[in-house]
Hydrolase
Amino acid sequence: MVQAVILDVDGTLVLSNDAHAQSWVDAFTEYGYHISFEQVRPLIGMGGDQVIPRMVPGLNKEEGDGKKISERRKELIIEKYGPKLEAAPGARELVQRMKQQGIKLIIASSATSQELEVLLKAAKVDDLLDEATTSSDAEASKPEPDIVEAALRKLEMQPDAILMLGDTPYDIQAASAAGVSVIALRCGGFEDPQLEGAKAIYDHPADLLAHYDESLLSKH
């Protein structure tokens, strides 16, 4: 019986993965580091603590240029790209359906709380979701399990009563390490082989909603 669902936001409820990649490119460029969109796009779904040292060895999110780049990227998402983002097809309707079923919902995102506010508004679910774990609740971002484990602590439930809804290999890795099964969505831009380990894969929230009664969620 599924009693709760942990929700990723970027690429899952809002079509923001390309915007995140471009914001990294822009932020690195402003500080003199030339990173291509193609280099950083496969890493979207990880937090800045993971992305920055992979792009420029020697930099980190906590100090120097790495910290400045991280802060600038956040500004770009909030001020430039966030207001232009579109909800994933069916995002609001799926969240409403799960709530109607009595499933408890909690967000697990590598975003900061400020970014999350913008992203949830873009996804048109800001009035439906109020419980979240963000980057401030975890020492390390996905693919490390910290954020999922923080969500489990808030839910106070066993992992086998919970599903996670995500769109990247890093969601699957993080959830699996925490003992949580994943339904993956293709709307984040990753191919099926990259989503290996998910219990099921759908195109987007609307596709999952169309198959809701035969999905893992229907066990509730």
About this structure: The chain has a mean pLDDT of 96. The longest strand covers residues 104-108. The chain has two domains: 4-16+85-219, 17-83. DSSP finds nine helices and six strands in the chain.
